[in-house]
Amino acid sequence: MIEFRVNGRRVPASRVGDEFARALKNDIKREIIGNLRRVRCPVHHRPVSNIRVSESAGRIEWSGEVCCPRLQQEFDRRFR
Ligand SMILES: [Zn+2]
């Protein structure tokens, strides 16, 4: 019998595709959150907080809270 593991978890062969897609998505989410948290407010030196990453209709969207408009400007400058 062939055993498949995705991120150390055993999954049935028939579900490897699903599990792999989910693991990949989780990796992508982690990566996005990591990138977002590297951006810091030039005034308060704080990163964005309460980051939420979601996926809808194949698009990844994120939201978070900023300490002030300067941090918002940093995001606008870098991600647009
Ligand atoms: Zn700030």
Q: How would you portray this structure in words?
A:
The protein has 80 residues and is of the alpha+beta class. It has one domain (4-79). The chain is 41% helix and 26% strand. It has helices at 16-37, 69-79, and strands at 4-6, 9-11, 49-56, 59-65. The model has no long low-confidence stretch (mean pLDDT 88). It binds zinc ion. Residues 41, 43-44, 46, 67-68, 70-71 line the site of zinc ion (ZN).
Spatially, the strands of the biggest sheet line up as 1-2
Write out the distinct hetero groups bound to the structure.
zinc ion
The beta-strand count equals 4
Q: Assign a percent range to the helix content.
A: 40-55%
Q: How many separate domains make up the residues? A: 1
Shape: elongated
Biggest pleated-sheet summary: 2 strands, antiparallel
Give the averaged pLDDT, no decimals.
88
Rg over CA atoms = 17 Å
Flag low-confidence runs: none
SS content category: alpha+beta
What brief labels describe this structure?
single chain; 80 residues; alpha+beta; two-stranded antiparallel sheet; 2 helices; 4 strands; binds zinc ion
Q: How does the SSE layout of this entry go?
A:
Elements: E1 4-6, E2 9-11, H1 16-37, E3 49-56, E4 59-65, H2 69-79
Antiparallel strand pairs: 1-2, 3-4
Bound molecules: zinc ion.
Zinc ion (ZN) is lined by residues 41, 43-44, 46, 67-68, 70-71.
Provide a concise account of the structure shown.
With 80 residues, the chain is of the alpha+beta class. It contains two helices and four strands. It has a two-stranded antiparallel sheet with strand order 1-2. Strands 3-4 form a two-stranded antiparallel ribbon.
